[in-house]
Design brief:
heterodimer; A: 115 residues; mainly beta; four-stranded antiparallel sheet; B: 107 residues; five-stranded mixed sheet; 9 strands; 0% helix; globular
């Protein structure tokens, strides 16, 4: 199984809602990532988890709260988002983090719209 | 910031080789050259990576110049399904995506 899955595929939420994005991989990878991609822009790294611990936070606002409950799952909890947070949210995984010869495998993304 | 320069767009006829260039003149000795592509509204897909030597896999070939300041991704027989944005990335740790090359394969 070389797949990273993400749910939901699409999400529409209001600025006062609380929602969560989910990501799962069963490749035995110990590093997982969240990226944000605005329309017509390249993906930008948000968070890196290594062995279930947060290792990189790219100065992301606290309204985005990541969680890694186990080595296969990665969540992104959303609260009080702004319309400018509307984007494609991508999850990725790799064998370990920071190793330049381990490629990252990406999921299909969750397209988030904040009204 | 991304450390690569790519042309914003290229066209290629179906069945012909697509050669996508990338400049990375400030690459360090321990940085790898990675290529990913992203088909519209999908997640990026890993293609190939290399350090110094040329590499080939079932998807593509990667040619790295001897001074490592530039590289070329070669799709030997482009198909319509190869239409995508292709990202060249140099990395030792994090993946930092540049703006990429939008490859359009036409019939």
């Amino acid at each position: 199984d070389t797949e990273v899955t993400q749910t939901p595929k699409h999400l529409v939420m209001g600025m006062t809602n609380k929602k969560s994005l989910k990501c799962e991989q069963h490749m035995g990878h110990r590093a997982m990532y969240w990226y944000k991609q605005k329309a017509k822009k390249p993906p930008e790294l948000m968070f890196v988890y290594s062995y279930e611990k947060l290792s990189i936070n790219e100065s992301v606002p606290s309204r985005f709260s990541p969680e890694c409950p186990n080595s296969s799952l990665l969540n992104l909890h959303l609260h009080a988002l702004q319309p400018e947070d509307s984007a494609l949210y991508l999850c990725a995984s790799s064998q370990v983090s920071g190793n330049p010869y381990n490629e990252q495998f990406f999921g299909p993304g969750t397209r988030l719209t904040v009204l | 910031d991304a450390k690569t320069t790519q042309p914003p767009s290229m066209d290629c006829a179906e069945g012909r080789a697509a050669n996508l260039p990338c400049n990375h003149s400030t690459i360090s000795g321990n940085e790898y050259v990675y290529w990913y592509r992203q088909i519209h509204s999908q997640g990026p897909q890993y293609i190939i990576h290399g350090l110094k030597n040329n590499e080939t896999n079932e998807m593509a070939s990667l040619i790295i110049t001897e001074d490592r300041k530039s590289s070329t991704l070669i799709l030997p027989h482009a198909t319509l399904r190869d239409t995508a944005v292709y990202y060249c990335i140099v990395r030792v740790g994090k993946l930092i995506f540049g703006t990429g090359t939008r490859l359009q394969v036409f019939p």
